[in-house]
Every structure is written in C-alpha cells, then in structure tokens.
Amino acid sequence: MKPAEYYQRDRRIHPPALTPDYKTSVARSPRYSLISLQGSVSETTGPVFGHNDISPIDNDLIKNYAKTGDPVGERIIVHGRVLDENARPVPNTLVEVWQANAGGRYRHKKDSYLAPIDPNFGGCGRTLTDDNGYYFFRTIKPGAYPWRNWVNNWRPAHIHVSVFGHAFCQRLITQLYFEGDPLIPICPIVHTIPDADAIDRLTAKLDMNAGVPLDSIAYRFDIVLRGRRSTMFENRLEGN
Amino acid sequence: MKIVDARNNAPQYLKESSSQTAGPYVHIGLAPGAAGFQIFDKELGWDIAGPNAKGERIRVEGVVIDGMGSPVKDVLIEVWQANAEGIYAHSEVPGEVEEGFRGWGRVITDFETGEWGFDTVKPGPVNARRKMQSGVHQRVRETHPDWLGREDETHAPMAPHLNLWIVARGINIGLNTRMYFEDEPEANAADPVLNLIEWENRRATLIAKRSERDGKTVYRFDIRLQGEGETVFFDI
C-alpha cells in the first residue's frame, strides 16, 4: 500500500499548549507557532507491535500484579474500539494504560499522597486491538486524588491511555474519565480541552450489558485516531 | 427553491480523541521499571536498532529545558527512525530492515538530573514527499514553479534525522520535533523540512552536536520548550 496522507489534526478540539489554569503548562509550552509539515514517510509510518511484545495477562490489572490476593476496589471492565476518523477499525495497535489504585495512589516513587499503596495492584496494562480494532481491560476503578495546582484541586477518577495507531503522526496519549463524575467539570486539566463535546468523548459510558453479573461493572470507551486521505489523485482509489 | 445539501452524500467522519497530558506518573504505564517496580516480562522501547543493524553506532543524549531554564525531570521521549539505508521498519516502505531493527524507542529522563539518552544507529537519508503521479497538483507544479522559483522539491531526499515525540506533565499534547546531525551540513542545507522553517536561525535548534567519548560517537541534543533558543516543533 502506498503511503497516503493523514487528515490534518484539528487543533481546536485538542488542548492548546498554554493553558494557565493548568499551571505546569505555563513554563512547558512553546511560545512560537508549530511549523506545519505535510506528512512524509517519516510521519506516515510508525512502529509495529506484535503478540511477542506483550503477555496475555498484561490487560488484566486485577491479576497482573497480584501478590497475595486481588486488589481492593470496584472491579471494572473497560472496553471499546480504536477507530480512525473514517470510522474504520485500527487493528493490531498497541494500547497502554496506567492509573492510580482505588484510593487515588499511584505505585510510583514520586507519588507521596497519604492514601496507601495496594500490595496487589500495579496500575498498568497493555493490549493489542484485534482485527476489528476492539480492546478490553479488566481493572479497579481508580480513585480521585489531590494535586498541587490550585490550593484544593482533585483529579477526577481517570485512566491514562496511550495509543500508537499505524503512523507516528497518529500517536496519542489521552485520559479516560468516568460518566457522571462531578469532578470532571471542575478539573483544570480536563478543561485544557476547549470543546465540551470533545470532553464528553473522553468520558467512558457505563455499559451494563458488557459487565459480568456479580463480578464486574463495565465502561465503554472508544478511541478515535486520525484518518487517512484517499489517494484519489494518485491514479488509484483506495477508498475511504 | 430546493436546496440540495451535498453534505448528505459526504462520509460521516468521527472526531479524533482529544489529547491530554501524560501527567507526572507516565513512567508507571510506559516505563514501570523507572517508576520503581517490575511488572511486565518485557518493557518496550529500550532497544531501538537491535544487534544486527548496520551503520554507525551512536549515542544520543540531552536534556529538556523549560521556559525557566530548568531541566524537565519527568519527560518521556519516543524516537522513530529509519535504518542506516533510510528504510523504516514499516509495511508501507519498500525494502527491508535488519532482523531486530524496530526503529522505535522510548526513554525517560533521570529523575535527579533530567538527562536522557539512548543508543541507536545513525539513520540514512529518506525520501521526502512523493511526487504526485497525476492530477491537478502535478500539472500546476510542472508549469508553474512556486513563488520562490522552486520547481518540484518533493523529490529531494530528507537529510538523516530522528523523529522525536515528547510528552510530560504540563505538555497537553505531545510535541513533535526532529533531530538532525551536525556532521551532515550539505544534506541539512538541502533538507526540505529544515527549509520550511522561515527563520534560518531557528533551524539550528534541530541540529545535534557531535562529539567523541570513549571511542563512541555521541550527539548532544538539548530541547528547549520555551523562550530563548526555543526548539522548533512541528504540526505533523
């Protein structure tokens, strides 16, 4: 298949670099404009991962760090599809997640929050989407946690999500929030995103049908990566 | 008069998921060893070129500096590069790379100093944008050079470079940049991407300095997020 361009990133639905309410962005945001680059092979290609790179248990955060038993907290399944802007599935792509435990504490030597570490919870996982772009994780619903921004800021419960797609220009890190969380509307990081609909798309929806009765509740979270142009001016229609 | 809405026939597009910062604990997910625990059998991104890659073995290192002039100590950088022959490890690229050459890696900074570094091979030049095979663009370009008198620069090879992607707390959407090599002055001078940067003095922010240390080639590439000497970042 011939390399074809990706649609330009719609920067209006992404956070700008400088968002002063999120204080750390002030000193870490470029002041000059980005230089726009039409995609070359350097941007329209990207790393390829396979099942040899990961273990089957890597997507089960309830079991992948269990030492003496299961972790404490609300057992959930997070599932969805990775699609592109043309609504086509993105198969065999690496999805990585990381999160705090049920009390909002990260297993990270830099996290000093007083909520305790869970000895049976690592807080990270990864998986490859299947041929239909489908993925799922099992985990513990993370807790909210405080952070030093304003005097009394608390992050909503969230799971960090990293996705590769098919090309380096599709590379994306985002955060998954949970439907109905009252901290979402007051979080300065959430509101770096200037578009309410875009925030809603980062909010996983309760999905009772996908849960396991008497075991786990489920949330649905679809991820959309940049789409790709048809190559109709290159003598062949590869179709959207 | 009936108004026909042509959009009814248009494909229904989805919107890209919006970016969010990787936050302070990005290492948990993408480099848990650095966060202080072992969980995965294999952490990804530590070996970029593999043992069989041809070409010059190099080390690349640097520090990311914020607008206050301080090192950023919680950054994660991913690199994407071609092999020494200018071939990417990707199915859409003609040619093959060496067994074990992935061309992709990720590194994190030292929590105390902010220094990062990785070992790889120096990439070869890769082709720039393909010339259009047919259609309006091609005909226009053939007969009408652009306003600077350039014909069709899309055939020009790109100088050897590494593609870098930088995420961290305080960075709301990953920053794309490129690292070029100081010892490729002619290729750099002709590089179509460097030449897109209107301010010639800013091009230098993308060029790594070469030195030798213990018989090994080291390229130094400091990235300045903001302010004096601010690194050029791209919307790719």
Give a description of the structure:
The complex is a heterodimer of chains A (240) and B (236). Chain A is mostly beta strands. Chain A has one domain (41-224): Sandwich (Protocatechuate 3,4-Dioxygenase, subunit A). Helix content of chain A is 6%, strand content 25%. Chain A contains 3 helices and 12 strands. The longest helix of chain B is centred in the middle third of the chain and has 8 residues, at 136-143. Chain B is 11% helix and 25% strand. At the A-B interface, helix 1, strand 1, helix 2, strand 3 and strand 9 of A face helix 1, strand 5, strand 7, strand 8 and strand 12 of B. Strand 1 (35-36) of chain A pairs parallel with strand 12 (234-235) of chain B.
Termini separation of chain B comes to 43 Å
Give a short account of the largest sheet of chain A. Answer: 9 strands, mixed
Structural class of chain B: alpha/beta
Largest sheet of chain B: 9 strands, mixed
CATH superfamily of chain B: Aromatic compound dioxygenase
Radius of gyration over C-alpha positions of chain A, nearest whole angstrom: 19 Å
Radius of gyration of chain B: 21 Å
Q: Can you identify the CATH class of chain B?
A: Mainly Beta
What is the global morphology of chain A? globular
Helix content of chain A: under 10%
Structural class of chain A: mainly beta
The share of residues in helices of chain B is 10-25%
**Tally of helical segments of chain A:** 3
User: Could you spell the SSE succession of chain B in H and E letters?
Assistant: HHEEEEEHEEEHHEEEE
* Averaged pLDDT of chain A: 94
- Largest interface: pair, residues per side: A-B, 93 and 88 residues
CATH superfamily of chain A: Aromatic compound dioxygenase
Oligomer: heterodimer
Features:
heterodimer, A: mainly beta, two-stranded antiparallel ribbon, B: 236 residues, alpha/beta, Protocatechuate 3,4-Dioxygenase, subunit A, nine-stranded mixed sheet
